[in-house]
Target: L-ascorbate peroxidase
Amino acid sequence: MAERVLLTPSLPLPTTRPSTTTMATISGTAAARMIPSATRATVSLSSSSRSFFSFSSSSSSVSSLQCLRSSPRISHLFLDQRRADVRVSSGRYGTASVTKALASDPDQLKSAREDIKELLRTKYCHPLMIRLGWHDAGTYNKNIEEWPQRGGANGSLRFEAELKHGANAGLVNALKLLQPIKDKYSGVTYADLFQLAGATAVEEAGGPKIPMKYGRVDVSGPEQCPEEGRLPDAGPPSPADHLRQVFYRMGLNDKEIVALSGAHTLGRSRPDRSGWGKPETKYTKDGPGAPGGQSWTAQWLKFDNSYFKDIKEKKDEDLLVLPTDAALFEDPSFKVYAEKYAEDQEAFFKDYAEAHAKLSNLGSKFDPPEGIVIDGSPNAEKFVAAKYSSGKRELSDAMRQKIRAEYEAVGGSPEKALKSNYFLNIIIVIAALAILTSLLGN
Model:
């Protein structure tokens, strides 16, 4: 009988009314979806990772995963709005009107990060966590405006429907590792937890500090998972063209494609999962973690620029080079950045940090719309209308995302005008006519 994995957050019975900023909220529909308790699987990590963003011809058999529905979002632009939160008391559901909570609680995010650091120190699962965050975010399609149809980091990867995609083989192990942390911090969404784990893994492996923000809203059910086929293939007929097709769809450019590929400095590929790599090499036979697989670099738990150096030299047969890796030094445009990163680790770290943060934000729906920063905001940009009114200055990507989030909070986007408020338009017209009449009379 297949082992069942319970991915439903536990709901403790409060004896006193919780703080409105930390109180977890669920909808009535979600309450009806709650499943009975099941035996939680004991985690045995069999692999640190395989290729980030790569296709696997085999898929892991996973059991049905259920999750609570995320809270409905209400824009902070509307004052004094209130909603009914579900409260659990004596085994019954009741409603109470309280101030809206954020998608994720900032204090719980900070505490969850410390638990993730401990997990990384004991399980050596840095590559696996990066891959989890990337694969949840990497389904984004910039040509689809609606959320969650457009994909992106929205926690959909927790559902069996998406876990069964070939490119996600083995990621159920990452979910098993993170589930106790999710149970402990119910005020953190799955979408945020996945991205928090990935960014923390990069930093703990010696990589750059990622300028992350949180507050991502979770999808509510498996019917909102993206279709299969949005993630890259490791060995397509035309590797460079394939990479552009996938990453351009997400709104990323050649520099960002090469920088993100540099994360292969971490991890191993296992032939039984991806169809790529050797069963074992001199660098992987003794672990850490479960032994085996083939790594891209000799020190496959250290984040540096050795990935680019090793691919350029191609001197070690025990190191993996996928067709999509080789394309970085074969394609003229990619090669410019790959050569640069092989020579300049500082430049690689800078570009990687920016690309990682961008990928983790694309397609996400934030509550609050501007997101939550838990480490200060060194790159924050204050919007001053006068700076942009002349039309001579372009908005930065960060500011575009912020403005888009503000519009989406009230039902629109920068690409789509909001529906007209006819009553307001009439008032404005009457006021204008009154002023004009007054001026003409004078």
Observations:
- The beta strands are 83-89, 92-98, 268-269, 294-295.
- The two ends are 89 Å apart (CA to CA).
- DSSP finds 16 helices and four strands in the chain.
- Confidence is low (pLDDT under 50) at residues 1-50, 55-99, 377-383, 386-390.
